[in-house]
Structures are given as C-alpha cells and as structure tokens.
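Example record

One chain of 311 residues, shown exactly as stored in the release files.
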Amino acid sequence: MISANTYIKPTSVSQAISLAAANPGNFSYLAGGTDLLVNKSQGNDHSAILIDLSEIAELKQVFANDVQLVIGAMVSLDELKTHPLITGHFPILCTAANSVASPTIRKTATLGGNLLCENRCSFYNQSEWWREAAGHCLKCNGSVCLATGGNKNCFSKFVSDTAIALISLHTSIEVVDVNGTTILPLESIYTGDGISPRQLAETAIITAICIPLNEGIRGVYKKLRKRETLDFTSLTTAVTLDKTGRIRIVLGGVHAKPVVVDGTKNNDPIALISQAISNTRIVDNDTYSRAYRKEMITVFLKRSLNEMQLF
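Predicted structure tokens for this chain:
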C-alpha cells in the first residue's frame, strides 16, 4: 500500500494496473487531468493516489490495419483532430474533438480521458461550500436529487463529446485490467446511472479505441452550448450513414448515458427522431431549459438528416 497524497508515473500498462490493484479504492488514473483535477479542486474526487498514464508509449499510437483504425487512449484531442489517418477516414471525429473546450485544453486532454469524463449537473459541479449551502445531492452522498426533488435517480448528464461521434461510428474499445484484455462496444460501458455512470473494473484502463474501416460511413455532428470554448455540452447529436444504408443516431447531454437509435435510410426520419426524443431523460440541470434542449433535438436531427440528403 502506497502512502496518501502520492503521484506516480508508470511506464507500462501492466505496471499501472499493478499499482492500482495494490491500492483499491484509493487511487485515480490521470490522463490529461483536465476533468479529474477540476473535480479534485471542487472536492468531488477524494482519491489520495494519482497514477499518471502520460509516460506509457503504447497508449499514444495511431495506426490502421485492413479492418480498423486504432487510436491509443492517450492521444491528445489536438493531435486527434489533425492526424491524417483520422481526418482522412473519420472527419466527424475531428469535428467532435475540435468542439471540446479550448485549444489550450485540447493540447492536454486525451481521447481516453474524454470518453471517461464524469457526468455533470449544475447542482453537483460547484464548489464544496456551494454544495453544502444548497444541500448535498444524490451524487455527493445526499438524500435527494436537487434538480427533480426525487430520491431515487440521479439525472447528471453525459457530456463526453468524442464518445457521441465514436458510438455513431460503431466503435469498440480495448480494455485491460487485472483479469486481462477485453474488447467491448463503446456504448456498453455506460450505465445510465448518474451516480455510477460507467461499468468498468476499478483497475481497468482503456488502452485503444478501434473504429471499423471500409464501411463507407459519413456523418454530421452538432453541439449546443452557450460559449464554444468554455461550456460542456447541453446537447450533442451525431448522425451517420454507412454504405449499406444503415443509419445511427446518437445523442449526448440529454441522459445519463448516450442515447442510441439505429435504423435504415428506408425508415421514416420523423419516426427515428421521435424515437430518439422518447429515449431521453432531460431535467432542468443545465444552463438551458429542459424544454429548449428537447426542442433542439428535433432541430439538430432534421438539419443533420437534411445535410445528408435523408430528410
């Protein structure tokens, strides 16, 4: 067991996992730190040990084989949006990466870190004294959701920008933990529970993001927020179409997990939009009202389908 308030920089995935396994419940993996360190300063993360993954070279590779494009989890968002393999095959992912925060943050923030960005709520992401004055919510050991008044469900919103684009591209992830390596559909790790929004083993590290090639996927990505270089998303939409006519619609910012709707170009687009809206769980925990965010789902999806000549 390592003493508290410790910062460690392993040089391999196996070393990082061994350190994590030796300190259960007392550590956090550190990627770019643009989300974790803010949460620590707000008192929303209390891990005493930081395991910094930035020196692990195998997590920074980008390459393509015959069937997929593989992106290491520690590739920065700035590199992501300019890498020729990514810009050439999946411009929708470049758009998503470029929508995150500011240029300075994108030079530090990583793809893996963005996929694991903590769910957000205007009643939770505040200073410690603010939360104490307002009354602690379900997400910080309180007894009631301050957004809804209920005592059973946390509606903190899913805010990863890149996850929405990647799920629309039918992406899988490689995950390594103490039990070995697993390949999972990206969307499968998100639970829909605002308090515990991801189902990954405590020691798990996302090592690679794997996007299928040769499917002829094209798409449109849109994001709603008040200030382009500061605010987390209030609504994110991604719509893709592959060469077989398969459509995928993915929404972020309107549920505790990504909302995914699959169809084909032969489906009624209005029916697909209605299905997407019916699967959301929007509450007033954002700078925009619930009604406005819900209305903008239809606006964004109609515009996206129109740009793709599907509406």
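Notes: The first helix runs from residue 13 to 21.
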